[in-house]
Fold these 3 entries.
Entry 1:
Amino acid sequence: MGVKQQIREAVELVERGLDKNVRICVTGLSGSGKTAFITSLVNQLLHQKSSTTLPFWLAHAEKRVLAVKLIPYNDLHIPEFPYAESLQAIENRLWPSSTRNISQIRISVKYQIKNKWIKKLQKTSHLNIDVIDYPGEWLLDLPLLNLDYENWCLLFNDWVSKGKQANLSLEWLNSFSSDTGQISKTDIKGLSESFRQFLLKCKTSEEAIEFIQPGRFILPGDLEGAPVLDFFPIPANANVDKNGEAYKILVQRYEYYRDNVVQPFFKEYFSKVDRQVLLVDVLKVLNQGFDSYKELQQTLSKLVTSFNYGQTNWLKRMFQPKINKLIIAATKSDQVPPEQHMAMKSFLAQMLMDAENQVSYQGVNVNTLVFSAIQVSESVTAEHDNKRISCVKGVELDNGEDVVNYPGKIPVEPMTRKQWNEQEFNFINFAIPDLTTDRQLPHQRMDRLIELLVGDKFL
Amino acid sequence: MNEKPIKFASEQVDTEVNKENLENLDSLLNDELKQLPAGINSSKLLQPKSKTKLFKAFVVSLTGLITSAAIYEAWLFIQQMFAINPILGGIVSALVGVVLVTGIGSLIKGRVKSKRLSKREILRAELKTLDANETYGKARSKLEDISQEFQQEVDISKSLAIFQQSAQQSHNDSELIKIYSDQVLAGLDKLALEAINKHATESAIMVALSPLAAADMALVAWRSSKMLQEISRIYGCPQTAFGRLGLTKQVATNLMLAGASELIADASVELLGKSVAATVSTKVAQGIGVGILISRFGIQTMRLCRPIEFTEDSRPKLGDVRKLITTKVVAMITTKKKNQVLKQGEKDD
């Protein structure tokens, strides 16, 4: 039996080798720049021929990349990544619309083989790169897999009673207390909706609460309006008969959500992934302060544990983890003067040290990087109080004005709470300038990202 | 921590596009150095003071003596010429003047270029720290200076243009250095390797054919000196005859100090080359041995002249050169033998 399995695995390995496919999953919390990243990635690859700004993509620097094109992919049930629409948006000087659902795109790269042994067999080969985009919020549902409805309610009530979410939850909790009697079957729809409103409020409020379960309540994808999302945890103050019909429906829907939405998602997308990209918007937390920083840090640590499935045996058997590389990348580096990129990188590394440790311990290769998928600003030096300071110049997104911005100095060392309060930051979101999409988009370090992601695949 | 953010309206403030020398970013410790004990890699044995003060004084006074004697002689000579005929005197003094000006001029010029080699070592160390610390805005001006030095000797306009296109404002020093090494220096490395190949095969063939051991030695000295000159010119630091001597000494010391692993690898390559060649003839084996020695010399010279250290990938490999030498020499000798056989056959006919 053991030998048989080994042979089967070996055959599979050879096939994978011949298959020349690499599956890359891109995730990140909403607003971290996933769509812009994938659009830019596809754009850089498609325009590689005339490109001079990809010196760190080695196969390209060696002039071994012959041609790149988009090809149809096999997983027909996944929607296609809206590349053309995104480009069109950029042409109209708008940021492409954000990721609300899972999507996929496949790029095929034809290249010359460098390896002197393989070269004897064939001169050229191709590599199919599958890029899969999904909301990072969905990953936060991983703990649900181990919870039944009752325990989930307990955990949720614990979460609601603490921190900033306690204030925001009042309205939702009130909708229960006004309902003095038993929760009946007909109330479920309305209460679910107010539960969802509460979660959305957590996400969009100034408190920027990131750790929100269940993830699909915020980004439902194609489940919008489906009855599976019509459930809610029973708050401590509510009075529910555990043998009643309403309770049974809630349990049933929760279990359906867990078994038919969350589990297949993890099973399907994590069983086949080779490389994972996690995009992080560190500038947002720098703008918002210490509490947001802590919140993001904790959320990302939890999120990263879902890449770290090797822990328990049953999970291992189920998902057969194959991620061998995790790239944690801070996006929007064009909002920061280039001399601070190094500080930005160390800030990212410090923030995610714990998460990185967990993943690297499992034998996954972790890299951190600071990049900008679409560079929309210019780095300039300005004179202020007889001092030369390096700033970024661009069009402010909110009001469309031309500005030169010095965003504050990102510290190299970790900051204390006091320092966080004293230090001010003002990173500005820039609008897209007038760009042509017939040539490659301006970027910062996309070439390094490409090299990290797939560089080793160009034999 | 009191650097407040500032936002200007675009018209209010004069800006210039960033190029270089921005405010210094706090220099960060290299990651490797952060590991304790930090001092472990930083101790270094100083060079012994080879020349004593007495010796230096001797050299200075000797030079002074010879120069004053030469000036005195020249003065007397000019006077004598004037005594014979003023026109003759005028011509001679003009000649002396021209000799002095051109001589000193070319000496200084050669010295300046020659001096670059010793600066290269410092430069290499500086660029290495910039590379390790990922600072911003310090490397660009240095790389521009290096490019200027190169441009006096080699035409690198095309690769330089490619470098300038690929180097973005956002690149930090480490990235710039890497791009420069890949785009500009790689071309020079190729030129240098070609020169090494040419000289090594030439001398290998010469040694294989020459009948005298003494002639072999002279050949090796001559060819290797020629090669050193060419390589140093390729890297923009051409050496004067005097400087070449110093360079040779440096290269030889470096060869001796080369890491054991490298030596073993090189030695096995040599053995391999010889064993292939020894089946043809001992003289050929000697030739190949000399060829490999010269290419080792050449590669070591490249290392000394290159402003940016080789990485593991870009390091020139002795194996490539060895193969070429062996095939060339063996091919030449066998065709020669074949020709001899043919000629003999013709005679027999």
Entry 2:
Amino acid sequence: MQKTELISIAARVSEGTASEQELALYLYHLNGYVKEFPVWEEVPQSLQEELQDQQRLAIFNAIDKTPAIQVKRTLHLWPGIAAAVVLLLLGFLYFNRSADPELSREKRTVHLPDIAPGQNGASLQLAEGKLIDLSSVKTGISIDPSKLSYNDGSAVIPHTSSSVLTGDLAGKHVQMITGRGQTYSVSLSDGTKVWLNAGSKLDFPVVFAKKGQRIVELSGEAYFQVAKDNSRPFLVRSNAQQVIVLGTHFNVSAYKNEKLMKTTLLEGSVKILAGEHARMLKPGEQARISDQHMEIIENIDLDEVVAWKNGYFKFNENLEEIMNKISRWYNVDVEYQIKPDPRLVFSGRISRKRNVSGILKMLEYNGDVHFKIEGRKIIVTK
Amino acid sequence: MSTEDYKSETEESLLLSVKDGDRSAFDELYTRHWTVVYGMAYNILRDHQYSKDIVQDIFVWFWEHRGQWNLTTCRGYLLTAVKFKTANFIRASKIREDFFKSAAQREQMNYDQNLMLEVKELEQFIHTVISDLPDRCRQIFTLSRFKHCSNKEIAAELNISEKTVEMQITIALKKLREKLGNGHVLLYFFI
């Protein structure tokens, strides 16, 4: 088939006026061409992933017509601020600007010494003071009084007789600790499952008492799927807050270096105790505690709250809050050469498996902030 | 429902959720199909910029018209959309020269079943795209473009003037031009 003929058929296809035979011809040549040279297969995996993330952002920004909610939430936080600025990170516009991805990739390798993301990993502190490093190839462990195993069933310490958790277990405590750049999960002896975000610590008994409360202590961030047991309420203590649970899914963020402690309920119901405050949460609500003050925010974006657990970052917050997350996951320190405006809210979403440069680039696209990487330090500049 | 749960959802129930406006379900569909959809666009156009334009249009369109489609699987549908969209790039010669070279060397087409199935899908897709048009306009446009009636025949059948028919077709084309997205690419070829 000749070029001119093919062009005129394509024209009729695209205006919706092609005959059946013309459609057949068009598809026949298209399919043949694709089969002859499938060039997509040669595009490196890393570039494929980068493109996929870029487009996800672009598409969600294009269909996202609800920035009003973000403004409202910002106002909740700082009631005095009349017009908080919401910056949608239209990353793709800028990606599109540098049309050639090869080029942008090259640019990055020239400018930024990159930092790899965090990964699975944690250590387990036993009652006797023994510290065990947990495998980064596995994603979690399972606590059973008779056996300490990974969640795929393999033993944490192979070739030992029964377990390291021997002796009189009642009342014995274990701590699971994730460093910066680590994440891990644990199934407790009652069937409750806990995912720990980076830089966190969970203290729990090997077996819970048969009566009374099931008590664990958390610093940092964790997502809980609490096994239902009406006779033994589950209690999460962190700093000055206690969360009382019957059986439910919720996320607690209680980092010592964050001003706010946030507890978000996804399913079921929990009760928050903090100082003199006590409050039941409904699904979709978040309790924010700072000093002696408790505030309840409704209609929380739950996807954003548990993004970390599902392998990505989803932002809808100011630069300092975002940099705190980055610092924990990439195990880097952050130095500010400018004072970021706390009212400026960034929105965006990106995989946690990407190197740090991907996320920094995304933030730079708003035009107001730049980054330098020196060793394991990120410097925020004008 | 947490994002994790969406991963184990069937395609059919995800599509139903999308129709209800569930963006996490849409996100999951994006994750499942993006590589194949983008890969198809790139294999045809071999240009990241063009491929991005097309793929973004398709996913956004898919979301915004979720009330219009009724699907239990969507990969085929999205791929059909890609093949429809690339037509415009070919028309505008925004395609590698070796596409035409390869076509020139290809032997005679045989209508096998798979091809005819694809043709039907593409036809249906084009129908969905034009189903947004106002009723009267769509009726006239369909008669004209798919049933191959002349303006005179249409005028007689609907008992309206030939001038009205012409006008309605012009409106239809204008609407289509807007709907098919990427106005800047499409702008000049309808007239």
Entry 3:
Amino acid sequence: MTNDQIRQAILQIISVIAPDEDLTHVKSDVPLRDQLELDSMDFLDIVMELRKRYGVEVPEADYGQLASLDSCAAYLAPKLKDK
Amino acid sequence: MRGNLLNDHRRIVITGVGLTSPNGNTLAEYRANLLKGVSGVVWFETRYMGKVLAGVCTYDPLKYQMKKEVRRGTRAGSISIYCCQEAVADAALDFHALDKNRVGVYLGITEHGNVETENEIYNLSRFNYDTKFWSHHHNPRTVANSPAGEVTLNMAITGPHYTIGAACAAGNAGVIQGVQMLLLDEVDVALAGGVSESIHTFGIFASFASQGALASHPDPTKASRPFDRDRNGIVCSEGGCVFVLERLEHAEARGARIYGEIAGYHMNSDASDFVLPNAQRHVECMQAALKRAGIASQDIDIVSTHATATPLGDIQECQALRTVFADCPKTHFNNTKSFIGHAMGAAGALELAGNLPAFEDGIVHPTINVDHLDPQCEIPNLVLNTPKKLPRVDYILNNSSGMLGINSVVIVNRV
């Protein structure tokens, strides 16, 4: 997956776990929690969906890497390069 | 006249009703359908079993919840929120001005967590039972206080909340808990009643089927038939009903409409069988409630029966009713499950709610689907298939009972 595809994949996951949010203007370089009503349980949902959909494991120590769409792409690119 | 309840700050009244039933999402709609003979039972697809007969609610969850709340929470929680919000609106409470520390949420449940656990196990089965795919939402969804807790989150209520696990006696048990907390001065407003999401797990249907107690009928609207000779079991339903309970002085001070007063109540245990009701304990429960209300059985105008349409259970209840109401020419009997099936934890509260308008219109809604009355279920003044107008209704007695031998009775009087 390309970085842009990863950003789109994360947004698609967020659209499911936070269905009330308008995602059309999410900035990729700004932390998601600064733009959207997301709490710790939502981030666990993102981690779970990455596991279910792509077989990707995100260790707890790396949760901070999922802060923004850009950081998600940078962190997940090596894990998703063959997906 | 009632003998032993109390001055105005110890008299508890119903000032709001919020409900969702398989045949109505407001008290007005529900009552109209009870008087018109409209069933709420339909075919319902359930995992592993295919089509089953069930009572299914059609309320709009998004009336009071965000989509995310619905997704994160439980069906029981969603039903609870809908009912509590509707009850508060119906009571015309100035909810924003209320001290939320003095509002309590007391919801009866038959069970909770089966739906969520079954869903998780099904999800896990698609991942080769690898437990790392088990949701972090499972614990908050399945703690026993969950439906009531979801209400407090949604409505920013900071008073006490919990559920009362009382099998199918739970709807009355929730009301009784609310009354008791008001009498103890723990709260000023109690949101009390019962809820059920049970139809969303196959287990309740499968278990009743294995017990030989699951209704079957080619016409869903005819499937729930308490007291009928050809009844063959329970129709499982979802639903909820919550009452706003207040002290009379509190209600009068704000000019509230009063549906009725909790005149008496009682709960007891059969201590005799896991599933078969005990007529004698049921008699004792009704008699104790009458005693607390300070009235005689002859004073009761309407008895809302619990009967679920199991062959033995209905007979046991009728035996108890014939004992308690042996010489009560003005007492009439009806049954709500014939319309909506058995709403489990919500049943008692829904069945009481559907009868409350009788204080105003004097009409006893019937028991439907009785084509051939079982001789063992004959009771004088059992209102069959069409409503009956009475000159006046002053007292309603609401019966509920459940597995493990639990009985609950609530008596309400006109104010």
